[in-house]
Amino acid sequence: MAANDILKYLNLFVDGRGYAGKIEEYNPPDLTVSTEEFRAGGMDAPIDIDMGLEKLTCSFVLPSYDADVLALFGVKSGAAVQLTARGSLESRDGTTKAVQHKMQGKIISLARGTWGSGNKPSLTVTVSLTYYSEIVGQRTINEIDVINMVRIIDGVDQLAEHRANIGL
Q1: Residue 21 located in a structural domain
Q2: What is the CATH number of the domain that holds 143?
Q3: Among 41, 71, 91, 129, whose CB has the most other CB atoms within 10 angstroms?
């Protein structure tokens, strides 16, 4: 059926504070496998070898000069900012389901936009992530824990054997 699971509503929680009605944009992390080409004798073409994931980052835009978010910039080593993005999906038949991104990381960039009289302020925040999970309805689609070497995709931990092989 056409028009299934259209994102209609969004809320963001930053370190436990909700930003419903205060968030303009949320850009989830892109999931990209880092690859290296490999071609050995007897192969007609190269293949890509999975070398892990690219760095995970997300960003969001607030239409305000939010001191609580500004104060989270560059949290000391070992500490992290907790983020949860929640959305509501709706299909053409009227059914809805929740989508949730749970994240943990460090704010690495604060872009305050251009200041000027009569201009709406904006604050663009970029976060380098060490943890990311995506849940649609009751189904966990992705769970990535960079520090603990976990990459679960649709219920399968793709790194479990590697962790066991190196004694983790």
Answers
A1: yes
A2: 2.30.110.20
A3: 129
Domain that holds residue 106: 6-33+49-165
Distances (CA, A) of 148 to 55, 119, 162: 15, 44, 12
DSSP string, the chain: --S-SEEEEEEEEETTEE-TTT--EEEPPP--EEEEEE--TT-SS-EEEEEEEPPPEEEEEESS--HHHHTTBTPPTT--EEEEEEEEEE-TTS-EEEEEEEEEEEEEEEE-----TTPPP-EEEEEEEEEEEEEETTEEEEEEETTTTEEEETTEETTHHHHHHTT-
The per-residue pLDDT for 1 is: 52
**For residues 86 and 20, is the Cβ–Cβ distance under 8 A?**
no
Q: Looking at the predicted structure, is the pLDDT value of residue 28 above 60?
A: yes
* 43 within some domain: no
For the segment 30-69, what is each residue's pLDDT rounded down to a tens digit? Answer: 999 999 999 999 999 999 999 999 999 999 999 988 999 9
Kindly report the pTM of this predicted structure: 0.91
Q: Which position has the higher pLDDT, 30 or 74?
A: 30
